[in-house]
Each structure stands twice: as C-alpha cells, then as structure tokens.
Amino acid sequence: MKMIGIQAIVTLVTYFLFIAMAFRSVQEIHIERYLPLRALPGKLLIVLLSIAIGYACAQFFLSVITNIQNLIYLIK
Length: 76
Known about the structure:
Blueprint: H1 2-29, H2 39-70, H3 72-75
Helix pairs in contact: 1-2
C-alpha cells in the first residue's frame, strides 16, 4: 500500500511540473501576436493549452518510466 501512495505522489508532482513547464513555454510563444485575443479568453486559452501539453508530456514520461520498470520481467 505504501508503494501505491508513493507512486501517486510522484505522478501528481510530475503532472504539476510538466504543466508548469508547458505554461512557461506557451507564455514565451506570445500567442497574442498571432491571434487577436481579449484579456480573459486569451489567458484561459494559454492555461488550457498548457494543461493539455503538460498532461500529454507527463503521460509520455510516466509511460516510459513504467515500461523501463517492466523490462525487468523480460530478463527474469
């Protein structure tokens, strides 16, 4: 049970880190130059886009880690 709790914490921290990295990256693109955005919808678009990109990258990262852990069963 303790291992499941540790895995849950690692997963949540990974999601938040990747979403934060995606948020910083999306802000640097300056979408407002390319799309005429009002203040609130533009910020909402940036936040939602950051969540989508961050979640997808975190899922990929966690999937790679899980697959690497499962390679042990190939050797046994």
